[in-house]
Design a protein that fits this description.
mainly alpha; Growth Hormone, Chain: A; nucleotide binding; transcription; DNA-directed RNA polymerase III subunit RPC9
Length: 141
């Protein structure tokens, strides 16, 4: 993989949600928007509606800072931390998919600690869609 823009960084869903809400609030009361501004408004609106169905709606800067600080002992990359924040994995398999070489880097106990940390630190709406856009699976009897 080639790094195209080394100054670019990953954003959390919460940061995108907050930014788009601020932009949307700043556009009220403006004169007639251009066609490009209308397209941007549509994209912003659709993105906000999607993100409102995810747990990031219930997050705050303080919660995210606490979560990132609690991840320090695991020695994860910034990208891995953002993915954990955005995806909120609830199983060891999901952790393995998000953390590169997790089998070599983390013990089973550390994976369980990560899952507990995610569950106890990050707020979530269990009835909402998860960050991947999939409906929660119902238990089958």
């Amino acid at each position: 993989m080639e790094v195209i823009d080394e100054n670019a960084s990953m954003l959390s869903n919460f940061e995108i949600y907050t930014l788009l809400k601020d932009i949307q609030q700043g556009q009220h009361g403006q004169k007639k928007p251009s066609k490009q501004q209308q397209q941007l408004s549509t994209i912003s609106y659709e993105t906000i509606k999607y993100l409102e169905k995810t747990p990031c709606k219930h997050q705050s800067s303080e919660i995210i800072a606490d979560f990132i600080k609690a991840l320090e002992p695991f020695k994860l990359s910034k990208a891995e931390k953002i993915q954990l924040l955005n995806q909120r994995p609830s199983t060891a398999v999901e952790i393995q998919l998000l953390i590169e070489e997790s089998e070599e880097r983390l013990t089973e106990e550390q994976i369980e600690q990560l899952l507990d940390l995610i569950l106890n630190t990050l707020p979530g709406d269990e009835t909402a869609e998860d960050c991947s856009g999939n409906e929660p699976m119902e238990e089958q009897s």
